[in-house]
Design a protein that fits this description.
- By secondary structure, the chain is an alpha+beta fold.
- It has a domain at about 5-145 and about 205-210.
- It is built from seven helices and six strands.
- A three-stranded mixed beta sheet has the order 2-1-6. The chain has a three-stranded antiparallel beta sheet with strand order 3-4-5, with no helix packed on it.
- The longest helix is centred in the first third of the chain and has 13 residues, at about 65-75.
- It starts with 11 loop residues before the first helix and ends in a 9-residue tail after the last strand.
- The model is unreliable at about 10-30 (pLDDT under 50).
């Protein structure tokens, strides 16, 4: 199956079910879930605060993924990607930096764009909103607030994502740093590392994120 055909395999009913599932309690000990995560600030609020999401020359922040979320919700207001705007929904997101999207665009479309805006436009034009939505959902683990401490103890764990039927595996190479790689379904593209300098984004809230160095892909390309 080609990556561009993935979106065609999704059904609205299957997507809607995933984020409607009960979330992990913030006061209950849960494997891979932190305690004391009672805040309800959403990840979307963090990403868009203070001009966040505006294209710039810093390839190591999260402007492209922020614009991708906004584009999906603009085109499909009822998309389950909207969970990222609801801080009462517990989830963990893995956020590719802008360079990761530049690398993905080069892989899919064969050219190297020199600006973040050009990368986003290329992906949106050539891949389409449905595919962007599917890829975003693959970066979200619903129902659990997984901080870096929990992640560093999760070697071998398989995380089910908000994309129906799609998961990825955690491989911990070093606990102390921590040094963690995520194993997706596109080995030829290269697996992302969790950025040890971009951990626990939105800490203390039910929604938490960690930066990663590549885009996770649910199928081979």
């Amino acid at each position: 199956m080609k990556l561009r055909h993935l979106a065609a395999s999704l059904t609205a009913a299957a997507i809607a079910v995933v984020l409607a599932a009960p979330t992990a309690s913030a006061s209950t000990t849960h494997k891979g879930t932190t305690q004391g995560t009672t805040g309800t600030r959403s990840l979307a609020a963090v990403l868009t605060a203070h001009g966040g999401g505006t294209f710039d020359r810093n390839w190591y922040d999260y402007d492209i993924v922020t614009q991708a979320v906004l584009a999906v919700l603009g085109a499909k207001p009822s998309s389950p990607v909207g969970a990222l705007t609801d801080g009462t929904v517990a989830l963990t997101a893995f956020l590719p930096n802008d360079r990761a999207f530049q690398i993905l665009d080069n892989r899919l479309n064969g050219t190297t764009k020199r600006t973040e805006g050009a990368v986003f436009a290329s992906l949106a034009t050539n891949q389409g909103i449905d595919l962007i939505e599917a890829v975003l959902l693959y970066h979200v683990v619903p129902g659990a607030t997984i901080d870096s401490k929990a992640a560093s103890k999760a070697n071998g764990a398989v995380l089910n994502t908000a994309l129906p039927g799609a998961s990825f595996k955690v491989r911990v190479l070093e606990q102390r740093i921590p040094l963690i790689t995520l194993i997706d379904n596109a080995p030829a593209v290269g697996n992302p590392f969790v950025n040890p300098w971009a951990l626990n984004i939105n800490k203390g809230n039910k929604q938490i994120a960690h930066g990663i160095t590549r885009v996770l892909l649910p199928i081979a390309v």
